[in-house]
Amino acid sequence: GQNIDQPTEMTATEGAIVQINCTYQTSGFNGLFWYQQHAGEAPTFLSYNVLDGLEEKGRFSSFLSRSKGYSYLLLKELQMKDSASYLCAVRDSNYQLIWGAGTKLIIKP
Amino acid sequence: ETGVTQTPRHLVMGMTNKKSLKCEQHLGHNAMYWYKQSAKKPLELMFVYNFKEQTENNSVPSRFSPECPNSSHLFLHLHTLQPEDSALYLCASSQDIAGGVDTQYFGPGTRLTVL
To answer: How far apart are the first and last CA of chain A?
Structure first.
């Protein structure tokens, strides 16, 4: 079966750095997505990786290792507004997105 | 604002009611999706339409019936639902179902409660 694993919940301090991991086992691979979802709101696109390596976008970076079936989302200089759920999704060989259950990130002052 | 709107935002219905969820996208996309999101569970893909044609039906019970009259509008018709169908129903759209990055853009969802 296809599976995406990510931690259920993480806590970090304002101004710090946090890394949210995602491991996957899917039928084929056509890219990995990270989305942010604030409570009661729509998921919004953060990043896309299809080749190995690090993609940086401001305070957010995403890393991919296809051989290890592993990705992480790195958030720097954390702000209170970063409190949200972070969803990892992999596009499989049928171009369907397989989703993780999400990581709820709690930022403390 | 993501360019995808959904109505209603909240819906409470009895098991014998019939209701419809509406989704509209203003992004000029060709693919539209219905997802179910339950607490602490992964997003479940229900239906996919590409150029108004249904391309995926992930073993969804027949009490959920989708309709896609054009590339901008998507409906989910509901009838004789069960309490376990209570969830957040998300609509999304993308340029196409294959090729390139093809990022999906989500609407705010309809919070459905079945009594």
So the answer is: 40
Residue A23: burial class (beta carbons within 10 Å; 0-12, 13-18, 19+): middle
How does pLDDT run across B43-92, given as a tens digit for each residue? 999 999 988 888 877 789 999 999 999 989 999 999 999 999 999 999 99
Measure CB to CB from residue B109 to each of A42, A96, A102 and give the nearest one: A42
Name residue A90's amino acid.
V
Asked if A69 and A2 count as a contact pair (C-beta separation under 8 A), the reply is: no
- Interface residue B101 vs chain A (CB under 8 A): yes
Res B31 pLDDT > 80: yes
- The SS3 call for residue B12 is strand
Spatial CA neighbour of A20 closest among A5, A42, A31: A5
B89 alpha-carbon distance from chain centroid: 6
* Minimum distance, in Å, between the CA of residue A61 and any CA atom of chain B: 17
**CA pair distance A85, A104, nearest whole angstrom:** 4
A101 and B108: CB-CB below 8 Å? no
